[in-house]
Amino acid sequence: MYVSIIRILISLGGKCLLNWALVFLQRTHVCGSFLAAFAVSVAVVDAALTLAVTIIHHSDGSLVLLGHLLTSYHICLLLQIVGQIHRVLQWPVVAAAAVDHFCAATRRLHATTVRTKSAVCLIGTFLLWGFAAHHTFLLSDFKPVLEDVSYHHMHRCWVAPCTQVLHIALILLLALGYSALHAGRFGRLSSSPNNQPKAQTVDQIEAHCRSSFVRRVLSIFLHTWSPFLVFLAVLLLLPEEIPSHLALSVPWLCFLNSLLVALVLCAVCPVLQLSPGTAAPLPDSFCVWKF
Questions:
Q1: Where are the transmembrane segments (predicted)?
Q2: How far is 18 from 28, CA to CA, in rounded Å?
């Protein structure tokens, strides 16, 4: 789809402001969570992209870098490259964040120091960006689309749509819904009139506890993110898709973080031993995971 350069600048500027506002909000989790560290890198890349596009656009074809005249063609080329990298990153980021949360929830890395965890998150972030760039330039069939007009008359850019955001949200929400239904079914069986308290087995008691735990997780998640879910539903119904250069953002990563935390908690709740009133050992700046 074609988008005017002015509209691109406005959307990038708004995205940058929102990115850095949320990065500041979750600054305490930057060293302890992969997604928080990756969100900082997204904010930096978006800020650099916005600055580059703004400078090139306002130079009006008079900016020379390393002997090359930078024009509107380079704005469109840069947007399409960054957009393609964002599209490539979507699923790998989900996988890396899920592994990070699973290890934290099951305390597999309980002996890891904060400095070591920060180093792992930083290395993982650089590796993912490197992988996405390598895939975009060397492995994919990515070809930039540029209008065959003079750069003086080039006032719009073609940007690829990104469907991965809605696909990821839909798949993870379906998984969370299945976990809630599955736990609720076993909870009803364990609390049926045929099961007298004296006759209840350990498995039935655990099923009832699991059902209560999963319902609490679902309640916390929906209480916080219901407006964003409505926003995603509206996007799903609209004919226009999300431009790829806007698909990977800090607000999306914050929502993804809470959704993955909810899924991991539902998956490991028999393993996760929490005292009443304590919080789950998973970083989240929006949901308060207290049970």
A1: 6-25, 34-56, 62-82, 118-138, 158-181, 217-238, 250-272
A2: 18
Residues 6+ apart with CB under 8 A from 283: 26, 29, 32, 33, 36, 104, 257
According to the model, what pLDDT value does residue 204 have?
67
d(CA 272, CA 105): 7
* Of residues 221, 218, 210, 164, the one with CA closest to residue 186: 210
Give Cα 245 to chain centroid, integer Å: 14
Residue 171 has pLDDT above 70, yes or no: yes
Across the strands, what pairs with 243? 161
SS3 4: strand
Give CA–CA dist 156/159, Å, rounded. Answer: 9
Q: What is the mean pLDDT of the chain?
A: 83
Phi then psi for 2, rounded to 5 degrees? Answer: -95, 135
Q: In which band, very low, low, confident or very high, does the pLDDT at 277 lie, cut at 50, 70 and 90?
A: low
Q: Which amino acid is at 18?
A: L
Alpha-carbon distance values, 163 to 17, 60, 91, 105, 241 (Å)? 24, 33, 12, 30, 7
The SS3 of residue 69 is strand
